[in-house]
Amino acid sequence: MNNNKQAINAGWLSIAVNSGLFILKFWAGIATGSIAIIADAWHTLSDSLTSIVVVIGIKISAKPADKEHPFGHGRAELIAALIIGVLLSVVAFNFILEGVQRLRSRELVNYSTFAIVATVISILVKEAIAQYAFNIARKTKSKSIRADAWHHRSDAVSSVVILAGIFLGKHVWWIDGAMGIIVAFLIFYAAYDILRDAMNIMMGETPDNELIEKVKDICKSETLLETKPHHFHIHRYGDHTEMTFHIKLPNGLSLNDAHEIATRVEMSVKQEMGIISTIHMEPEGKTGD
Predict the structure, then answer these.
(1) Half-sphere exposure of 89 (CA within 13 A, CB side)
(2) Do 277 and 265 touch, CB atoms closer than 8 A?
(3) What is the four-CA torsion angle of 167, 172, 175, 177, rounded to 10 degrees?
(4) What is the CATH number of domain 3-203?
(5) Are 18 and 47 in contact (CB under 8 A)?
(6) H or E element, residue 245
(7) Which of 35, 203, 219, 233 has the fewest CB atoms within 10 Å, measured from its CB?
(8) Helix, strand, coil shares of the chain as percentages rounded to 5?
(9) Which residue in 49, 47, 9, 4 sits closest to 132, CA to CA?
(10) Where do the domains of the chain lie?
(11) Backbone phi, then psi, for 281, in 5-degree steps?
């Protein structure tokens, strides 16, 4: 199964599971009169909405390159990850407001057994689907699936807060509000991590040292020269990656020979690393680049 299909299947599974959990928790909230559980149900439904964004983003990113998008549509998935990061931030902000309101009102809620069962089911199912999504994200290197996995995790954690409120709220009036605020900051951190990774890639990034050393080894083996590769830049478009770098070549080398050397290196980088590279050639002794 290819990476895009795995990611899309994970998105559809998320939509189905979250829709079912929304119905279960919303029913429990209505039955018990708990605003917290109803709010948690809507939080779960928001996971379905973000999963829809993920599926759409992956489908768009899989489209081949065209005249308007010569590097393909891979960054649509990064846009999806940005949307999820923003939605997570909104969820976290709402948790803070709810936590503060609960502290100010000193509100106590009497939960039923049905509410406990529904909350426990939500925790177990949401953590299971989060683990599944994290596993798919590791296999596919999908930023949006990883972001979606964090959203599942945030929902599981929010349900833990609700469960803590169920068991401790009757004895410690402030526990539900305090835990809600703590969880909100954890969700904010997850949102920050998602947004940072996506924006770094969209703005361009420096290749890691392992990748640079691999390129240097390829240059050495293909040219048998001290080419001193430098000035690396990398641009990712989903599964498509473009890289530019400079190499040094002997002053007396003909243009044809220099072109042949650069082409060999570019072909080897593509075959061994799956990266499309463009090489700028410099004469030895040239400085200031």
Answers:
(1) 12
(2) yes
(3) 110
(4) 1.20.1510.10
(5) yes
(6) strand 240-249
(7) 203
(8) 70, 10, 20
(9) 9
(10) 3-203, 209-283
(11) -95, 135
Question: Rounded to an integer, what is the distance from CA 159 to the centroid of its chain?
Answer: 22
Which residues touch 236 (CB under 8 Å, ≥6 apart)?
74, 75, 201, 205, 242
Q: Are 32 and 63 in contact (CB under 8 A)?
A: no
Token couple for 163:
């469960």
Give the separation between CA 40 and CA 22, rounded to whole angstroms. Answer: 8
Residue type, 160: V
User: Cα 68–71–72 angle (5° rounding)?
Assistant: 75
Average pLDDT over residues 70-99: 77
Higher pLDDT, 204 or 252: 252
Of 66-75, 161-170, 228-237, 262-271, give the range with the top mean pLDDT.
262-271
SS3 69: coil
Structure tokens belonging to residue 34: 């708990």
- The predicted-structure confidence for 123-133, as pLDDT tens digits, reads as follows 999 999 999 88
Pairing mode, strands 276-283 and 240-249:
parallel
Tokens matching residue 80 = 């999806």
Reported as a single tens digit per residue, the pLDDT across 210-220 is 889 999 999 98
- Is 169 or 29 the better-scoring residue by pLDDT? 29
* Count of C-beta atoms within a 10 Å radius of residue 159: 27
Neighbouring-strand partners of residue 198 = none
Please say whether the beta carbons of 279 and 262 come within 8 A: yes
**CATH level 3 topology of 209-283:** Alpha-Beta Plaits (3.30.70)
